[in-house]
Design a protein that fits this description.
The chain is mainly α. It is built from 24 helices and no strands. Helices cover 53% and strands 0% of the residues.
Length: 476
């Protein structure tokens, strides 16, 4: 390996210690090497005259000099960024005012706007999240939701029985199911264990998390279980405290983000490309700085996008952030503007310290639990309004934000999950009530102790409720 990199002359300092650096710090060494290889081929393929004639500040976003692609420079005048303030959280009274006599939610767009501006008080999250995640249709009556709960409860336990009823002998011949079970047990044993809802070895919340994730494998055979999905379920189960409701809300959430977990990772690559596009329009100087530090690919944002910032904010902040994002306001891909806002908040720290690649990566990873969520939301919304009023915003930036002319104005709805269009006010089964229903179908399968040989989560710190994804989970 060292001889290969010496031949390419990618490292000014020589590459004799490359293998050693990989074993000492595989995360930084891998991304650093990939970045240098990318820059090498990009430089090798670029026309020499183009390199001489075009200063860095005018480098195009996306494919350069390719027919059929719009060339975007950093010269667009996007005007001043407005000041944005957040509102108070939606209360129980405001929530109840949005129901008609039969239980349908009225003025849905107005309600979503209120949720976007201030979030929800915790006492109504359990009900409102079912609508935001498309378990309950907004236009359903109380009676329709009751019928929906019955159907969905039966459907859930039928799927759960599929894996619960597999014998040990059958499982020996089913490597896929064995793999899912092993991976889920390991992830569950490490997800949010400092949160009181999941702490302790015999906590029933862990059993429910395990069962919901195993059942999701039966619901979505094509995707199954991928590391990181336990992070998405944890806050939902915490709020719902009910196995069936948590499952269907997770299914709705996965309708939004399931492509993040596909093996090809094409969706993740596209999001990183779109993020680079937005950041270059918003702050070309920061982009140029990152380019010179081999960080222009924004690979350090991978974890943010994969699990929607779950490890970057406190557990309570994530509840607020996710319900804001689930409104679908004010535009498609608002989570990319959240990423831009985080980088904007750290702009001076990154540029004034003249960090290199490793220092940038370390600084970003150390932001966990240190970010001000309300400030980030204000910055992100201000960025959207700044771009939305720009008269000469490039076409592909407009498309990322749903601003392109000729497109229908985006509604506040999140994409519809795979649920029928009837709803019911929750005849909820609380945390352990689903066990009674399940016992009528099958006996519980004993849980195995998680193997620590493979892990997505590093060892938990006692004072945090979320952790950083390991390098293995970030490797394309």
């Amino acid at each position: 390996m060292s001889h290969s990199f010496d031949g390419l002359q990618l490292y000014d300092e020589g590459s004799a210690d490359l293998v050693l650096r990989f074993f000492q710090d595989p995360y930084s060494a891998t991304f650093g090497s990939f970045s240098k290889v990318t820059n090498f081929f990009r430089g090798a393929l670029k026309h020499p005259e183009a390199t001489k004639e075009r200063p860095l500040s005018e480098t195009a976003v996306g494919l350069e000099d390719e027919p059929g692609f719009e060339v975007i420079t950093c010269q667009a005048d996007i005007g001043q960024r407005p000041t944005v303030q957040r509102d108070e959280a939606v209360t129980e009274q405001v929530w109840q005012e949005h129901f008609d006599p039969e239980g349908r939610v009225k003025n849905v767009e107005d309600l979503k706007a209120k949720i976007f501006q201030g979030g929800l008080i915790h006492g109504i999250r359990k009900e409102v999240w079912k609508f935001l995640l498309r378990y309950y249709p907004w236009d359903s009556t109380i009676e329709e939701r009751k019928q929906l709960v019955k159907r969905k409860t039966d459907e859930y336990f039928r799927m759960k029985l599929q894996w619960k009823s597999v014998s040990e002998e059958q499982e020996k011949r089913n490597s896929l199911l064995r793999g899912y079970r092993s991976l889920i047990e390991r992830d569950v044993s490490r997800t949010d264990r400092s949160n009181k809802f999941y702490e302790g070895s015999d906590n029933p919340g862990l059993t429910l998390m395990n069962d919901v994730l195993m059942t999701y494998c039966m619901y979505n055979f094509d995707l199954g279980y991928v590391q990181g999905m336990s992070d998405l379920l944890s806050p939902i189960l915490f709020v719902m405290q009910n196995e069936v409701e948590a499952f269907w809300c997770l299914a709705g959430f996965m309708e939004l983000v399931h492509r993040n977990f596909e093996e090809s990772q094409e969706a993740m690559k596209k999001q990183l490309t779109d993020l680079n596009l937005l950041l270059r329009i918003l702050d070309s100087a920061l982009c140029d700085f990152l380019d010179t530090k081999d960080s222009g690919t924004l690979c350090f944002c991978f974890r943010w996008l994969l699990i929607w910032f779950k490890r970057e904010f406190s557990f309570q902040d994530i509840l607020r952030l996710w319900e804001v994002l689930w409104t679908g306001l004010p535009c498609p891909n608002f989570h990319l503007l959240i990423s831009c806002a985080i980088l904007d908040s750290e702009r001076d720290a990154l540029m004034n310290s003249n960090y290199g690649f490793n220092e940038i990566l370390k600084h970003i990873n150390e932001l966990t639990m240190k970010l001000n969520m309300e400030d980030i939301l204000c910055r992100a919304e201000a960025m959207y309004h700044q771009l939305a009023v720009c008269q000469d915003l490039p076409r592909n930036v407009q498309e990322v934000l749903g601003l392109a002319k000729g497109e229908e104005k985006r509604s506040a709805q999140v994409p519809t999950a795979s649920t029928p269009s009837s709803d019911t006010e929750s005849s909820s089964q609380e945390l352990l009530s689903s066990t009674t229903h399940e016992s009528e179908l099958t006996n519980s399968m004993s849980q195995t102790q998680a193997d620590s040989s493979i892990e997505i989560l590093p060892p938990e710190d006692a004072d945090t409720t979320s952790q950083s994804i390991s390098p293995a989970a970030l490797t394309p």
